[in-house]
Specification:
single chain; alpha+beta; 3 domains; 12 strands; 52% helix
Length: 663
């Protein structure tokens, strides 16, 4: 392959061709003095006009045809040359594109620097996968341990919504309706087998242990499969308490991660088996949906606060569990809140499209998303949601970018193909990113033109070779259906969000119905309609019906002088449910009545979910709930009173209950 050795633009893209063609070609700049000796039949004028390919039989090809013939030396790129030969229209179009780029080399050189920088070679994602899977393992560990310490009080036999009673009722319904094995699909939970308190804790413990094993890197795919199954089991069994969007997001991320991991048992598999690029793009597609849909639902809801850019004026105060930094953010002037809202819409509606752009722009999107999530994390407690989103942002990187940020002890990744040389035209070929399309390489190679001087010849087989690695060992018959299902269901979700009615074929609807119980392909979008006030439920107990004492929760607002706390990544699920319950009434929250009954019974498992029990010796005779409206104080009021909140009683949420009345 003859190219312009002093054109940085041409040399840069020639690395791409070298990686794609493998060891089958040698590369020589036309400025090299050996050109006249080794290839006297090739004139300098020809080399100045376009890149030249000299085959072993002595035939010479130039321009786009030379490029496609060079790529055809790699069996995986043979289809491009076949298309060129079989389609005159494609051949004419690519030759025209070659000439066009050759005439506008400066412009396309600038585009290359903007989009790819100095890295145009095929990317590797070994290190990205290792960091992503370790991050996901940490998040699974957080999720399981956070639930472990609460599960007895939430859904244990003496908890708020006992799983054993729920499963007993479901068994009776399934038997009455003659639902056989399909019950395990409709309600996928291991609690069909055992719904005892011990088994609930065993599931949490098993999930935590598997997360540790995954962090080590042992049997990543089996570990991820078991983690997904156990978390699906718990989300199904725990009903309202595990019905949050981040629980669904963890399930969807966890399912895709199974096929992103290598089918090996030893940790070395993470270094020697290339990750599936199809699954990599499914993870990126998930991140796109998460961010883009979050912006869309706000505008599609018609909420005037979002459309007037004033939603953040009340958001920090009315969100479920604000932090003390959220208190300070609430004090910002209106113009700052509106500017922040405008920036948020830019991040959620525009930046996601950079996910599908060239390398540098994609890295920029990654940085923007991470900063955005950090701002959310600092102002509100959203458990592991922000960490999980940041972990998804990692798949926008490649090894060349990520290796600068992780410890050197984590090692470097091998090249992405077993047949690619590690030597570049100028130095080592490092991992980077570029589209697999020939258009980018075609554009750059067409810019080869007259230069002087010389560059050393590159032999395809010379130099140190990268470790031989295997391609993804997940078979196509597994990846293809998963990809089709994810794309199909997510497309249906987009159509539903934008209210586009499409008569979907019956098989598509059947797949959608089959996948729904798995909660692993979802729509996303928090705070579609902004809450403008903050009602808080205060639960009180009394022995005589006259003197009432407040139960104090661990993290939700109660005592006005209690500073808002950081609790993430732990999620106090009862405190979260109290926020949702305050937005409606107790008739729509059956769990709340059960909660009050457990207080009347003095169940220790439920009381452990609270910060302070005002009746330590014996349960109260009566329990009731009242509603207060809470507001952040301002700087002057906090200096004067020391209070972070001010509140005003609005009325009764739940009339007084007693065990005698329940009987």
């Amino acid at each position: 392959m003859i190219y312009d050795g002093e054109c940085n633009f041409c040399v840069l893209w020639m690395r791409r061709v070298q990686h794609s063609s493998g060891e089958h070609l040698d590369y020589l700049p036309f400025q090299d003095p050996r050109m006249a000796v080794e290839f006297p039949e090739l004139s300098r004028e020809q080399s100045e006009t376009a890149v030249q390919l000299i085959e072993v039989d002595g035939k010479v090809y130039s321009a786009a045809e030379a490029l496609f013939r060079a790529l055809a030396h790699n069996p995986h790129r043979q289809w491009l040359f076949d298309w060129y030969e079989s389609s005159p229209a494609f051949a004419r179009a690519t030759e025209w594109a070659y000439r066009f780029v050759a005439g506008h080399r400066g412009f396309f050189s600038a585009l290359t620097r903007l989009g790819w920088g100095q890295h145009v070679e095929p990317p590797s994602h070994f290190l990205v996968r290792r960091v992503f899977l370790r991050s996901l393992a940490v998040i699974y560990l957080i999720a399981f341990t956070s639930l472990w310490v609460q599960i007895a009080g939430l859904v244990g036999s003496n908890g708020i919504l006992p799983v054993n009673l729920t499963m007993q009722s479901l068994r009776q319904q399934a038997d009455a309706q003659k639902v056989g094995w399909n019950r395990y699909h409709l309600l996928p939970t291991l609690c069909w087998l055992n719904s005892s308190d011990r088994f609930l804790k065993v599931q949490c413990a098993a999930g935590a242990a598997l997360a540790v094993v995954l962090m080590i890197g042992i049997a990543p795919a089996p570990c991820l499969l078991l983690l997904w199954l156990i978390y699906l089991s718990l989300t199904t069994a725990c009903l309202e308490f595990l019905g949050f969007q981040w629980d669904n997001l963890l399930l969807e991320t966890g399912l895709l991660a199974i096929f992103f991991a290598p089918l090996t048992l030893a940790p070395s598999g993470l270094r020697t088996t290339a990750p599936s690029r199809v699954v990599l793009w499914l993870l990126r597609w998930l991140l796109f949906r998460l961010m883009f849909q979050s912006g869309c639902v706000k505008l599609l809801s018609g909420d005037p606060l979002w459309r007037s850019l004033s939603a953040l004026r009340v958001h920090y105060e009315t969100q479920p569990l604000p932090t003390w930094i959220g208190w300070f953010a609430h004090q910002l002037p209106l113009w700052a809140q509106q500017s922040s809202t405008a920036v948020m819409f830019g991040v959620e509606l525009a930046i996601p499209f950079l996910i599908f752009s060239p390398r540098r722009l994609r890295l920029f999107a990654c940085l923007v998303f991470i900063v955005f999530q950090a701002c959310i994390l600092l102002t509100g407690n959203y458990c592991f949601f922000n960490l999980l989103t940041i972990a998804l942002c990692l798949v926008l990187c490649d090894d060349a970018a990520l290796c600068k940020l992780v410890p050197k002890s984590w090692g470097t990744a091998p090249a992405p193909s077993p047949d690619l040389p590690s030597d570049g035209l100028r130095g080592t070929l490092g991992p980077s990113d570029s589209s697999n399309s020939p258009v980018g390489a075609l554009a750059a190679l067409s810019a080869c033109s007259t230069r002087s001087g010389g560059v050393p010849t590159l032999r395809g087989g010379e130099g140190h070779k990268a470790p031989r690695v295997r391609v993804s060992n997940w078979p196509l018959f597994v990846i293809a259906p998963i990809t089709a299902i994810v794309l199909c269901i997510s497309l249906m979700g987009f159509c539903a969000m934008f209210r586009i009615r499409i008569p979907w074929p019956a098989p598509v609807l059947a797949v959608y119905e089959w996948a729904s119980p798995l909660r692993s392909v979802n729509n996303y979008g928090l705070f579609a309609v902004m809450t403008t006030s903050r009602p808080e439920i205060i639960v009180e107990g009394s022995n005589d019906g006259l003197t009432w004492l407040e139960y104090e929760f661990k993290y939700k607002p109660g005592e006005v002088k209690q500073r808002p706390r950081f609790v993430e990544p732990h999620q106090p699920r009862l405190d979260w449910q109290m926020w949702f319950a305050a937005l409606s009434n107790y008739q729509h929250n059956r769990w709340f009545i059960n909660f009050c009954i457990r207080l009347l019974q003095g169940r220790s498992e439920v009381l452990a979910l609270l910060q302070r029990n005002p009746f330590p010796d014996h349960p109260p005779r009566y329990v009731r709930a009242v509603v207060y409206e809470y507001h952040f104080t301002d700087f002057a009021e906090r200096r004067k009173t020391g209070a972070w909140w001010r509140r005003e009683r609005k009325g009764t949420y739940l009339p007084a209950l007693s065990l005698e009345a329940q009987r």
